[in-house]
Amino acid sequence: MQKILGIDLGTTNSVVSVIEGSQPVVIRNIDGLRTTPSVVAYTKKGDLLVGQIAKRQAVINPENTFYSVKRFIGTNPKELSATAKEVPYPLIEEENSFKIKCLNLDKVFTPEEISAQVLRKLAGDASRFLGQPVSQAVVTVPAYFNDTQRQATKDAGKIAGLEVSRIINEPTAASLAYGLDKKTNERVLVFDLGGGTFDVSVLEVGDGIFEVLSTAGDTRLGGDDFDRIIVDYLLDDFEKKEGIALRKDSQALQRLTEVAEKAKIELSTLDETKINIPFITGTPTGPKHIASVLTRVEFEKLSAQIIDNCRKPVEQALSDARLTKDKLDQVVLVGGSTRIPAIQALVKSITDKAPNQTVNPDEVVAVGAAVQGGVLSGEVTDILLLDVTPLSLGVETLGGIMAKVITRNTTVPTKKSEYFSTSQDNQPSVQINILQGERELASDNKSLGEFKLEGIPLAPRSVPKIEVTFDIDVNGILTVRAKDNATGAEQSVTVEGSSKLSEDDIERMISEAEQFAAQDKERRESIEVSNEMENLIGKVKVKFEEDPTNEGLKILLKDLKSDINIEDFEKRKAALEQAQQKFAFFNTPPTEESN
Ligand code: AMP
Asked: What is the predicted pLDDT for the residue at 427?
């Protein structure tokens, strides 16, 4: 039986899960980790890096390190706020889509291609884990993603050589992971606080049907904000104690950010944490270190505003779903940042409910996607999963009025036809404007695309009969067909938005991605070597700062570059390690025997 992966393609991190022996399991990546940063980078030499290895070198290669690409996939630049566009890599705003410029390669990528590299790595690592090739996946997207964003996510899968068997909503996946689909009519609030985004969804779940009643959130709120306030706290403290400002030192900031995240995570289980960063900067009087203690109470005080910012979207989602908190049956936590005790306390205080958190919040979405994958592959048999259209769909008619063809909350897949006619005598063509939304006027709803049906035989107005059919497939992707009954002339469009990639584009991107993957494999060894080298150099540098008079080490450091070839590496590594051992020896307190 072909396995179908469940993939949570996140803004910050991604997770893969699969059904093994009727239970969902999370698959570790090649680095042994259960989550993989959704980060892609290209080095100066043109090497492709994906995941942890790409994240780690972000600070020294910010313009060629692509993260948070999910913000841009299938997105119209006009619909994204200026702050949401702030990333250190060059972003090209085209009329209906974003492109990403990679300076190291002098090449322009679509967000689909970058996401495809993440998907390719996830699927590749999963194939290795399972010992069999996998070519199918269920991929999750936020509930508020529109058709274009969903289609773009599917295209990313295609470019990665994956057939995306189904796109499902993240809160739906989270509910599935908890088996909530088996209950009858429960109202579930899904609180999803990840690394950089915050989503709240209210769903009505039961008997296999998931209906998204409302969504709210903040695309610029997440765990990174907590890291930032700890970094600020440490910077202020250091400046106060030492009179040195470190805000412009990117290496120092990177180290501070890593340590801040670690401290934050520790404070989820401990009452206080020690923060030590040796050699944060050098001064004429010697190296300086950061040594601080942060208590949970202090951390909560510092982050009070961020925590409070999570309140409004929950209240908004409840009010949009026309529910009061006493009508909620379940609260589900998703995303690593929901491990913060103050966040859990906030959710409890707003909803009056102890949140459901027995499934790991980083993994719950991927696990739900794997359950859906199991349903599709036949490995899971006791679930019938039906999704619904979140918004009504229709066409613009005379006077700019929206005529609904499919009303919201219709179970998908679905197909429905309506008859329309011309509004003027001898009208040879009709323009079909496809609309999504609940408002009466076309201009208040979202236009998903337009097309023209031509060749209508001349006739008085209202005489021609034009059959318009809306067809929504299991992924929620819509095809609209218009047919003139008199001539049989037909015109159709699949609504993927105007930024949709053509089949040719996708084919080209697949072959380019494969080419890079092959190159990547070839060069992986050399990348690992230079990483290891950098690591060693870093360690020796620290020793050198402790003993700046050591001439031998000075020469060794000057001579070393991290981009040496593999042949030279072994020789120099031995020299470095020897030097390191020597220092380790000198730094070891004298034993009694040697005294
Ligand atoms: P996600 O996007 O769901 O992978 O969430 C990632 C975010 O969760 C990052 O900001 C992490 O620092 C944060 N995170 C992970 N584990 C914890 C924890 N135990 N306590 C606080 N934050 C955490």
From this structure: 92
β-strands 446-453, 411-412 pairing: unpaired
| Choice among 8, 47, 112, 362 that is catalytic | 8
What is the structure's pLDDT at 90? 95
- Out of 15, 307, 362, 363, mutate this one to test ligand 1's pocket (max ligand atoms within 8 Å of CB): namely 362
CA of 496 to the centre of ligand 1 (A): 33
pLDDT for the residue numbered 594:
33
Task: Kindly report the three-state secondary structure assignment for every residue of 69-130.
Answer: HHHCCCCCHHHCCCHHHCCCCCEEECCCCEEEEECCCCEEECHHHHHHHHHHHHHHHHHHHH
The CATH fold assigned to 223-306 is Actin; Chain A, domain 4 (3.90.640)
Outline where DSSP puts E strands in 153-248.
163-169, 186-193, 198-206, 209-218
Contact 273 CB / ligand 1 (< 6 Å):
no
Is residue 55 annotated as a catalytic residue, yes or no? no
Fold exhibited by the domain 391-494: Substrate Binding Domain Of DNAk; Chain A, domain 1 (2.60.34)
- CA 111 – CA 390 distance, rounded (Å): 25
Cα of 212 vs centre of ligand 1, distance in Å, is 25
Closest-CA residue, ligand 1 atom 6, reads 195
Write out the residue limits of the CATH 2.60.34.10 domain(s) in the chain: 391-494
Task: Look up 8 and say whether it is catalytic.
Answer: yes
Tell me whether residue 192 is one of the annotated catalytic residues.
yes
- Residue 170 bears catalytic tag: yes
Q: What is the CATH number of domain 4-221+310-387?
A: 3.30.420.40
Residue nearest to atom 2 of ligand 1 (CA): 194
**Residue 335 Cα to ligand 1 middle (Å):** 7
- Give me the pLDDT at residue 387, please: 66
Residue 15: which of 110, 98, 137, 175 has the closest Cα? 137
340 in ligand 1 pocket by Cβ < 6 Å?
A: yes
Instruction: List, for residues 496-550, the tens digit of each pLDDT value.
Output: 533 356 677 667 767 776 776 666 555 555 656 666 666 667 667 777 777 777 7
Task: Supply the pLDDT for residue 66.
Answer: 97
128 C-alpha to ligand 1 centroid (Å): 26
Query: Is the C-beta atom of 170 inside 6 A of ligand 1?
Result: no
Q: H or E element: which one contains 295?
A: strand 286-295
Ligand 1 centroid – CA 339 distance (Å)? 7
Can you list the residues of the chain whose pLDDT is less than 70? 181-183, 382-388, 390, 409, 496-502, 505-506, 509, 513, 516-536, 538-539, 552-553, 555-570, 572-573, 576-595
Q: Using CA atoms, how far apart are residues 239 and 231, in angstroms rounded to an integer?
A: 12
> What is the pTM for the complete model shown?
0.74
